[in-house]
Design goal:
- The complex is a heterodimer of chains A (about 350) and B (about 375).
- Chain A is an all-alpha fold and about 350 residues long.
- Chain A has 11 helices and 4 strands; from the N terminus they run αββαααββααααααα.
- In chain A, a hairpin with a 2-residue loop joins strand 1 and strand 2.
- In chain B, about 50% of the residues lie in helices and about 15% in strands.
- Chain B has about 375 residues and is an alpha+beta fold.
- In chain B, the strands form 3 sheets. In chain B, strands 6, 7, 8 and 9 form a 4-stranded antiparallel beta sheet that branches. Chain B has a 3-stranded antiparallel beta sheet with strand order 1-2-3.
- Classes of the chains: A mainly alpha (about 350), B alpha+beta (about 375).
- The interface between A and B is large, with 37 and 38 residues.
């Protein structure tokens, strides 16, 4: 049973109990009270998930700063709040106060809309993650049969925002950042989707909870190790963090597509980056590590633990590796990741054909 | 969405006929090490042409040196290559001493040699850290600065300042080294090589770093000689030319050290040469600590009241091996208390002239790698 319908029926019951009855009004065969409950629950859940993703961003940024400082023999944020925990909040307030600066010759519509195009997929992505189930209750905001396909469709939109932002900034460095972002998408998206398809074939389901259910005996990282590596690298490229931070590439193209951005518009890019890190870790945990499956602890805790492991791996690569060159990245994408993902597709097709019952 | 994109492309006008875009890297750019400006013509990601433009940090050091007495010019030398200020002072002080036929006590010469080598390590550490930043590696920067900090503390103990020392005087050094500073140097020398091994492994064991620097920014030996390139870049191109060996000054002929060379002439070769140079510097410092004699640290004839009245006639030039390459000051004295002409031969200036030859045909990402491998310091380029 879905969390959504669970909350909705409770609310509908309360409305019934309070005799708030809209019996005369019937739409599409259901009483209007049901529709009002539907709308209220939808809004509440969206706000909840958005808050959840924001909390995840705050936590990850704090962990990132402290961890990076630790690796680099520094102390890190330690002034705002206890042990500097409120540093990001302070930063956000600082950014909001700043002047909203739009370059004079920039395309202001494209310039303004770009950060939201980058950020929205992160917020949408979180509603598709299955956070485990409490007895019959599925902690998932929305659950339909094609969750994973929809998730990938949503995630692919994000680089479009980078491209629009870069093109409309009227700056040559931004232009190069935008074009690099486009080139990078070409490099990793095809292998990413093919390795996702092999997960779908092996699980025999398009939905996230179906994929998790298929991993109740063996997590997919075992039969699909090649696909896992491909997907993991694609996810690093997707977040554009080092070593694959080509669209931003701090030292070459001043700040890439976000060169002209400042204030909260830049802040939105920044938060989208870290939000995506959380989303990517959860997606990998769901697809390859069996999502909420695990002994003793409740499912949600297992998912968070698995996601946190991947977040720490992302941060480790961030602080320890240099940046690859554009042609090296494209070589990697087309010459290695694509053939590997196709091999993985063949392997998982064979497994699904002959050992289909196991999964 | 596609409509927005097409609209933007058409409106913003990327002229597809003229494929070459001219981009200014610098003077305000995070990876140009100061105020270098490179006019780059780009065909997509490929560099068609690159022209360095300099002069944004011109401070008239040569002319200012000709306006005061001989000892006063030392502080302008400090501010040339500010990350290895003692090397700059040394070049000037040696020349002026030759001009004045000054006798310098042996102890002062040994002290100079030791400190210059320590300063060479500090300079190379700055280079290594910023080079890492240019390659997208954030972490080694802090390790390099941690080690450099120890050297700066030693200098602080000896000369009283951390960056611009004004410590080498005509006829010696301004103050003697203290026992505490000697123990600090010993402590540093003892475990520096281990730390260097650690820092080197961050780079050399990183597949990404090696892949990005091998066969990048190549400069052949003939080219580097014809551009007047000196220092680690020349040695990375295969020419075994180190002024400390070839034209020894101070007591470099009395210590035992190697001149590292590589044949490849690319960025990775320069990295290896500089790392090895740091090891050799440690070796030299260790030998100096054993050999340093007791005695005077300055020539009484050049004691402070006399300094402003020093006169010189003639001309002289002593080339020295600074961390960046051949550094020397050409001084003409006309018999008065102020130098008639001071001309600075700065290594980074000559090295930077090889940028167009190094960059043509490479990618944008190689630009930062190559420029940082030159290790330009703009105080010295613009003078």
């Amino acid at each position: 049973m879905n969390l959504f319908f669970f909350l909705m029926s409770i609310l509908y019951g309360i409305l019934k109990f309070l005799h708030i009855n809209f019996v005369p009004f019937v739409y599409d065969g259901y009483p209007i009270g049901l529709w009002i409950a539907y709308a209220i629950v939808a809004v509440v859940e969206v706000v909840l998930v958005f808050a959840l993703s924001m909390i995840a961003v705050v936590i990850i940024v704090y962990v990132f700063r402290k961890y990076m400082a630790d690796v680099q023999n520094r102390i890190g944020p330690n002034r705002v709040g206890i042990w500097g925990t409120l540093q990001l909040i302070a930063d956000v307030f600082k950014l909001i106060q700043k002047q909203d600066l739009i370059p004079s010759n920039a395309d202001s519509f494209g310039f303004k809309i770009a950060p939201y195009i980058v950020f929205t997929p992160v917020a949408i992505g979180f509603i598709l993650i299955p956070f485990g189930n409490v007895s019959i209750l599925n902690l998932m905001v929305t659950n339909f049969n094609y969750t994973v396909l929809f998730l990938i469709g949503v995630m692919i939109v994000a680089p479009l925002g980078e491209i629009i932002g870069g093109l409309s900034s009227n700056n040559k460095f931004s232009l190069y950042g935008a074009l690099r972002s486009a080139a990078q998408d070409m490099g990793y998206e095809v292998p990413m989707i093919i390795s996702l398809v092999s997960v779908i074939i092996l699980a025999g389901s398009y939905s996230a909870d179906g994929i998790v259910y298929a991993q109740r005996h063996i997590p997919f990282i075992v039969p699909e190790f090649i696909g896992f590596i491909v997907f993991f690298l694609a996810m690093i490229a997707k977040q554009s963090v080092p070593p694959f931070d080509l669209p931003e590439s701090g030292s070459e193209l001043v700040s890439g597509f976000s060169t002209e951005y400042s204030g909260m518009r830049y802040g939105i890019f920044y938060m989208a980056n870290f939000g995506f890190m959380a989303l990517a870790s959860f997606v990998i945990a769901v697809l390859y590590l069996g999502g909420w499956e695990g002994p003793i602890f409740p499912g949600t805790i297992w998912l968070v633990i698995k996601g946190a492991v991947f977040i720490m791996i992302f941060l480790l690569t961030w602080v320890s590796l240099g940046r690859v060159r554009v042609d090296q990245f494209l070589n990697m994408g087309w010459k290695y990741l694509l053939p590997l993902s196709i091999i993985n597709l063949l392997i998982s097709s064979g497994l699904a054909l002959y050992l289909g019952g196991v999964f | 969405m596609a409509r927005i994109l097409f609209h933007l492309i058409l409106q913003r006008g990327i002229d597809m006929e003229d494929k070459v875009i001219e981009v200014n890297f610098g003077p305000q750019h995070p990876s140009t090490h100061g105020v270098l400006r490179i006019k780059v013509k780009l065909d997509g990601e490929i560099i068609v042409d690159a022209q360095p433009v300099i002069g944004y940090l011109h401070r008239n050091a040569e002319k200012l040196s000709e306006m005061g007495s001989y000892p006063k010019a030392t502080i302008y030398m400090d501010r040339l290559d500010y990350v290895s200020a003692l090397n700059m002072e040394l070049g000037y002080v040696l020349t002026v001493e030759k001009l004045m036929d000054a006798q310098v006590p042996e102890r002062a010469l040994w002290i100079r040699m030791m400190l210059v080598e320590l300063n060479r390590i500090a300079s190379h550490l700055i280079w290594l850290g910023t080079h890492g930043l240019d390659m997208g590696m954030l972490t080694p920067f802090f390790y390099c600065f941690r080690e450099r900090e120890r050297i700066l503390r030693i200098f602080d103990e000896i000369s009283g300042s951390r960056l611009l020392y004004n410590y080498f005087a005509i006829g010696g050094v301004y103050s003697d080294i203290t026992p505490k500073s000697i123990s600090m140097i010993k402590e540093f020398v003892d475990d520096y090589e281990k730390k260097l091994e650690e820092i080197q492994s961050i780079f050399a064991k990183s597949y990404i770093y090696v892949k990005r620097t091998k066969d990048v920014g190549k400069l052949s030996m003939e080219d580097s000689i014809s551009y007047g390139v000196t220092g680690p870049i020349l040695r990375a191109s295969g020419k075994k030319w180190d002024l400390r060996k070839n034209q020894p000054y101070l007591f470099y002929d009395k210590v035992n050290f190697d001149v590292p060379t590589r044949q490849e002439g690319d960025v990775y070769a320069r990295f290896l040469v500089r790392i090895e140079e740091m090891r050799q510097s440690v070796k030299i410092v260790r030998q100096v600590l054993d050999k340093i004699p007791d005695g005077e640290f300055y020539n009484k004839k050049f004691s402070k009241p006399m300094l402003v009245r020093l006169k010189a006639t003639g001309e002289s030039y002593i080339p020295t091996e600074s961390p960046k390459g051949e550094f020397g000051v050409y001084v003409i004295g006309d018999g008065s208390t102020i130098p008639y002409r001071v001309r600075i031969r700065s290594p980074s200036f000559a090295n930077l002239s090889s940028v167009p030859a190094m960059l043509k045909g490479y990618k944008i990402a190689d630009l930062t790698a190559t420029v940082s491998s030159i290790d330009p310091v703009f105080g010295e380029v613009d003078r």
